[in-house]
Structure formats: C-alpha cells, structure tokens
Amino acid sequence: ELIIDESYMKMARQNGLLIHPYTINEKPDMRLLIKWGATGMFTNYPDRLHSVLKEK
C-alpha cells in the first residue's frame, strides 16, 4: 500500500525536491510512481525495476 499520492509528489517536485520512495517491489507500483514523477526508488528487486524502465 502506497502512503503517498500523486498530488503530494507533484507538490514536492514543483518545490524542487527529488523523490526516491522505498521499498517498492511490485511492478504496478513502480509504473505508477514513475508516472507520478518519482526521480528514483529503492527496491529489493532491481531486475523488476530495470524491466519496467525498459518498457518506455
């Protein structure tokens, strides 16, 4: 369950903050956070994140 939402991330990014949520281990969550503007993320499964990043 994510404890952050799109509006919070948008506000943070508009204020010049980088966002690196943790620990994101599921592909749907990775996709969503990337869509929302995450600038990085911590995961126990870097291969999954790599796979998601290659989808673009």
Describe this structure as you would to a colleague:
The protein is mainly α. It has one domain. Helices cover 50% and strands 0% of the residues. It has helices at residues 6-14, 27-36, 46-54. The mean pLDDT is 95.
Q: What general form does the structure show?
A: globular
Termini separation comes to 24 Å
- Give start-end ranges of low-pLDDT stretches: none
Radius of gyration: 11 Å
Structural class: mainly alpha
**Strand tally, please?**
0
Strand content: under 5%
Number of domains: 1
The number of helical segments is 3
The major pleated sheet works out as: none
Mean pLDDT: 95
Question: What percent of the residues sit in helical stretches (DSSP H or I)?
Answer: 40-55%
SSE pattern, N- to C-terminal: HHH
Give the SSE layout.
Blueprint: H1 6-14, H2 27-36, H3 46-54
GO molecular function, one term: phosphoric diester hydrolase activity
Protein name: Glycerophosphodiester phosphodiesterase
Domain GP-PDE: 1-53
